[in-house]
Amino acid sequence: MKRALLLLAGVCTGTAFAQGSGVPGRSAPEFRIEGNINKPTQLPADPAKLKLPDGYRVDVAARDLGNARMLAVGADGAVYVTRRSEADVLLLKDADGDGRYEVRRVVASRPDMHGIAIDGSTAYLMTASEIFTAPVMANGDLGPLTQIVGGLPAAGQHPNRTLGVGPDGMIYASVGSTCNACVETSPFNATMMQISKDGKQRKIHASGLRNTIGFDWNPRDGQLWGMDHGIDWLGDEAQPEELNRIEQGKRYGWPYIYADGRRNPQDVPPNGLTMEDWDRMSERMVAGYTAHAAPMQMAFNRGTGFARDTQGDAFVALRGSWNRSDPKGYEVVRIRFDASGRPGAIEPFLTGFLTRAPGGEAGWTGRPTGLAFAPDGSMLVSDSENGVLYRVRYEGNDRPSAELARPVMPMTPPPAGPIAMARPETQTSGRLTVSSPAFTANALLAPRFSDYHEKASPPLAWSGAPEGTRSFAILVDDPDAASVKPVAHWVAWNIPATSTSLPEGLPGTPQLATPKMMRQGANQAGYTGWYGPRPPIGDRPHRYHVQVFALDTQLATIPGASREQLLQDMRGHVIAKGEIVGRYAQPRAPAKP
To answer: Is 113 within 8 Å of 124 (Cβ atoms)?
Structure first.
């Protein structure tokens, strides 16, 4: 076992920490963070030492699998194992029904292969930067790989990306942060993305998720739950591993707020936002588990193979800690859910991988990583370091009589509505004149403003604000999209009343430094700031209504708010409005750089 202790922060006082506490200028208390590195000794696999609740047993289903990580199971019981180090997918089959997988062969290969999901006769595979599909053949092999998504943002510290197919038929992909705690250069890092099966539609489903490798949908109500990895270097007991209900458009705190509203003392939000602001923008965790335990694959038990009281519960493989003095994790835990879909206790289920010698030295005989349920209801758990696949069975009689049906939640697009200028919330007789030095009314926008190219926001100018104007808001709508009408491309407010223009290429931060205190909300792609035109390739030019509103107040709307929320908050405060319309078309796919 290798152990080390690093003193990461000694005394922190003054403005930086005061901003983090939301009280500018107040001196902060002294604090110390001791970060421990503790790497238990790797030992051979020893299933005899593993422990389970009464009535359960565990057996070795396969050995010598190498870097066995994520698991997926086909309807016929074939098991697919991604192996990051080997950069491939291994197919396992139990041909003689003895509970051991004696048939194995490589069925796909790509660098950084990690995430996998099987949906009917199609496999979905994810690397650090790409998503592929492949047909599942009659013999279990995977056919040719077809890339449907490329160019995912840099992976950095968290390259082990995962995906699943939701009850709405969409792909959900976890795109972890590049770092421990930082401001990301891509808005798609530290998110859960939602992607259509053809890869053509993609947006951020939820953000502020440091690294949610394990997630699944509750079979009782179809809600998405995930276990997020906590921040390192905050001491042995912080940050706890977070259980989150992951909902559309929600932010989950990282990198500034964690757990039940605690604050990361190493960083402060940008451009005058306080910790209180970020907390109001963020969802609290629903439950927490031991810090640094490293949650990996997660799966709900829908089947009839385990005891009746476990049906509808979730199970999570915990790979084990390195950033604490007392090692934890190295186990599979059970998350109890009640009949209404609410979680309760998180408790150990499969343990015994972590051992201690008489002198107190820690070692492990396995690092649980992948977890899935087989068609017979047994649980499969992969050990990514010793290359073992375990099968957990229940030998009692109190089993449920039927499986929980997989939830079906059809994707319902937001109702069609008019552009913001025509909404009742913006009714006014006052008029603004809106222009741009980059394009004239109804002219084509330059490619640099589109999402296909440089993604720069266009420069704007306006005049004619009436007396009593206290701020301006901007909404940019595309009413020509095929499904969602209109598509929100920019949501911004609290632009100072003294401002009559905006420069080109504003950053996408929730609050800007210039113009000071200007706030931005979530566009249709799910991030804050300008979302450049992205009409389908070959479509006729879409219209982009750049609408500016003069308000008689500064709004309390929190950064990151939706278009609908801003419109509701603007009601009764619009005293003038105006627009300029630009058009954009993408006749052919842009050349790759």
So the answer is: no
Torsion of CA 480, 409, 79, 121, to 10 degrees: -60
Query: pLDDT tens for residues 362-419?
Result: 899 999 999 999 999 999 999 999 999 999 999 999 999 999 988 888 776 666 789 9
> Among candidates 551, 555, 447, 457, which has minimal Cα distance to 501?
457
What percent helix, strand, coil does the chain show, rounded to 5? Answer: 5, 35, 55
Radius of gyration for the chain, computed over Cα atoms and rounded to the nearest angstrom: 26
User: Mind spelling out the 3-state secondary structure of 128-177?
Assistant: CCCEEEEEECCCCCECCCEEEECCCCCCCCCCCCEEEECCCCCEEEEECC
Taking the C-alpha atoms of residue 68 and residue 386, their distance in angstroms, rounded to an integer, is 9
Unique residue bearing structure tokens 């082990």? 160
pLDDT of residue 361: 83
Beta strands in 351-387 (DSSP E): 354-356, 362-364, 368-373, 379-383
* Per-residue model confidence (pLDDT) at position 247: 96
Classify domain 420-584 at the CATH superfamily level. Answer: PEBP-like (3.90.280.10)
Closest to 521 in 3D by CA, of 533, 534, 531: 531
Distance, C-alpha 147 to centroid of its chain: 21
| Residue ranges for the chain with pLDDT beneath 70 | 1-32, 412-415, 593
CATH number for domain 8-394, candidates 2.40.30.10, 3.40.50.360, 1.10.150.20, 2.120.10.30: 2.120.10.30
- The residue extents of the domains of the chain are 8-394, 420-584
> What confidence tens digit (pLDDT) does each residue in 278-328 have?
999 999 999 999 999 999 999 999 999 999 999 999 999 999 988 888 889
Burial environment of residue 11 by CB neighbours within 10 A (0 to 12, 13 to 18, 19 or more): exposed
Here the contacts of 12-15 (C-beta below 8 Å, separation 24 or greater) are 12/265
Residues 289 and 346: their CA atoms lie apart, in Å, by 7
Helix, strand, or coil (residue 542): strand
Do residues 576 and 428 lie in contact, with contact meaning Cβ atoms separated by under 8 Å? yes
Angle at 367 between CA 389 and CA 155, to 5 degrees: 105
Q: Are 333 and 322 in contact (CB under 8 A)?
A: no
pLDDT value for 483: 80
Residue 10 Ramachandran class (φ > 0 left, ψ -120 to 50 alpha, else beta): alpha
Q: What is the pLDDT of residue 323?
A: 84
Nearby residues of 312 by Cβ (< 8 Å), 6 or more positions away: 218, 219, 220, 300, 301, 302, 337, 339, 404
